[in-house]
Design a protein that fits this description.
By secondary structure, this protein is of the alpha/beta class. It has ten helices and ten strands. Bound molecules: NADP nicotinamide-adenine-dinucleotide phosphate (NAP). NADP nicotinamide-adenine-dinucleotide phosphate (NAP) binds at residues 19-22, 28, 52, 115, 145-146, 165, 193-199, 202, 204, 249, 266-271, 274, 277-278.
């Protein structure tokens, strides 16, 4: 595993972050807590130190599972969690943070994010709460998720921003134009989610005969016409994967990690085999030619969708 700094916080994060949304009883939850705790330990044993959860995942259940998994080893892991967009008034942030601390079984959160922006609540008020929590030592660093450049600028006028968590993968590249350069300029680490486009970039739906039966049936990228248009990118991923003797998911994750300004990619799975697969992506180095080909093909595919 490789590691990097989280903004200027002094915190060190692993380049693969384990996503814990799936552990919370959400739409993908298929395994029990004991299975999930074992998987969290496997992640840790393989060098993953950074874990991403949220108060909203399974109504707090994901945080409880993470808290149980790392009880007694708090100083060895970086716990990241998020306050929901409906809790951004000052008193609500404080209460939400107390709830997360309790469920995580800790007295500090390493990286505390706003999950989604909320234009109805002044960011200055929300940041007052974050600043207070930081002064009290209850959070070590401030992050935002799903914020654009203008929204990050507003945060930076109030507080030190150390992390951005955006959606990013070879089929969703909206952050490249403005957000990544902004983060590089302001030393904000970028921890990306949706790294394999909810499973699409694994090739399972193009070559593995897998079909969606869950909430993803409503997602634009999973519509039959879209899957057809994505094929050139999937074929390229398959060619590159074959060259390196790895899986398509690993190539997709490695491509995200290779993007200048991306610090860590968040990958979520309850499947140990998939997890170990994804982990190996941190060690995979793609050539400049491969990255250029992925860049060009993904841009063409995105334009066609
Ligand atoms: N900030 C936000 O708003 C936000 C939103 C969504 C997610 N997240 C974070 O990101 C994490 C990951 O979620 P995501 O939405 O980004 O999903 P993702 O990682 O793009 O995809 C997850 C899906 O891919 C499958 N998968 C994973 N590895 C695979 C592999 N090697 N081969 C084949 N299939 C594989 C998983 O199924 P299996 O379980 O079968 O492997 C699951 O269905 C979450 O846990 C959460 O921490 C954040």
């Amino acid at each position: 595993m490789k590691y990097t700094n989280l903004g200027s916080s002094g915190i060190v994060i692993s380049r693969i972050t384990h996503g814990c949304m799936e552990l919370g009883g959400g739409p993908w939850e298929t395994r029990n807590d004991e299975h999930n705790i074992k998987l969290l330990h496997t992640a840790f044993d393989h060098g993953v130190t950074t874990f991403d959860t949220a108060e909203s995942y399974g109504g707090g259940h994901s945080e409880e599972v993470v808290g149980r998994a790392f009880h007694g080893m708090r100083d060895k892991v970086v716990l990241c969690t998020k306050v929901s967009r409906e809790h951004l008034h000052k008193a609500d942030v404080i209460a939400a943070c107390e709830g997360s601390l309790k469920r995580l079984g800790t007295d500090y959160i390493d990286l505390y994010y706003i999950h989604w922006p909320n234009a109805e609540i002044a960011i200055e008020e929300t940041m007052e709460a974050f600043t207070l929590l930081k002064q009290q030592g209850k959070i070590r660093a401030i992050g935002v998720s799903n914020f654009n450049k203008a929204q990050m600028e507003a945060v930076c006028r109030c507080a030190q921003l150390d992390g951005l968590q955006p959606e990013y993968n070879l089929l969703t590249r909206g952050i490249e134009a403005e957000d990544l350069p902004f983060c590089a300029e302001h030393n904000v680490s970028v921890l990306t989610y949706n790294s394999i486009a909810k499973g699409i970039l694994s090739g399972a739906f193009h070559f593995g005969g897998k079909t969606v039966t869950d909430f993803r049936t409503a997602k634009p990228l999973f519509q039959p016409e879209a899957l057809q248009k994505e094929l050139p990118l999937l074929e390229l991923l398959r060619d590159i994967a074959t060259t390196h003797g790895v899986t398509l998911s690993q190539v997709a994750i490695a491509a995200s990690l290779a993007r200048k300004g991306v610090s860590s990619t968040i990958v979520g799975t309850q499947n140990e085999k998939h997890f170990l697969d994804n982990l190996a992506a941190a060690e995979l180095t793609l050539t400049a030619e491969e990255l250029t080909a992925l860049d060009e093909t993904s841009a063409r595919v995105i334009a066609s969708l």
